[in-house]
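---------- Forwarded message ----------

FYI, see the Transcriptional regulator record below. Original note from H. follows.
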Amino acid sequence: MPANIPCLPGIAVPKHLVHKRAPGEVFLTGWRTRPDAAVVITAQWPRTHSFYRPVHGRYDSLLFAETLRQTLPLLSHQVFGVPLGHQLIWGDLSFSVSTEAMQLADQPQDVTLSLTFGDVVRRRDSLTVGCVSMTAVAHGTTIGHARTRFSAHSPGVYQRLRAGRADLATARANALHPGPGLLPASVGRHLAQDVVLSPTQSPTQHARTWRLRADLDHPILFDHPVDHAPGMLLLEAARQATVCGHPAGNAAVTDMTTRFHRYVELDRPAWVRLAPGDNNVFHVRVDQDERTCFEAEVAAAAPLPSALPDDRERLPAVPC
């Protein structure tokens, strides 16, 4: 096992270990193993972020999800022996955050992540499939839990899985133009470039439907070239659909349970469909070519008063 990376607050781990190109997008600061085989990873959240903006004076729950995502390549390469260049693929992801504990701090927030592992399958001393459970703590208070299942694949296996669609240049050249998005305020966003839903005619009166808007020039969601819609784009689509359909308007997502069934391609339209459930839980599905690629159950809460009021965070509810 490689040597631990010292936990140094404010000093990010090397960006290639979390599959990022922009140093400013790396939230992890170190890791160490425990005698019980668990791993502790430290992270630092900025007070604000260009994409994962605070919501009503609280950290964005998708910043929590992105922090979890970054742990997967770090664990894979540094703990489980997965070579750099292997592709990681999400199977499912669930998370839950405490709205009260996600209160925005008056300085960058140091977060401690405790991770345990299960159902690990190895081949040639390298992980191929694994489940990770995570608890996040800040200032002694638990702020959230998460669980995810993922797999790792060599370049050769990935080429076979993608069946001729793994070429990055071809994927970018053939990608659909993102087109216009919904009004930013209607999906809890400030900037048009951050909207990932495009308007379309809903096929039924029982569910809202939008086209997935994939802007390959987005500096966060497409930090580096990919040959398919990235997982964080699909999580963001589920969040925006939920916010758009929530009766409270700009609600805050607190829980999400997702399943990744197949790749969402960039050269064909994909449809984001929303159906309300019970107790402010919404069902979101992403379909492409009449097949379901991604599903999510999303719970959202009406905005809570902020201890750090900021009028810029109070977006009006706009019909979408």
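H. also flagged this: The longest helix spans residues 61-78.
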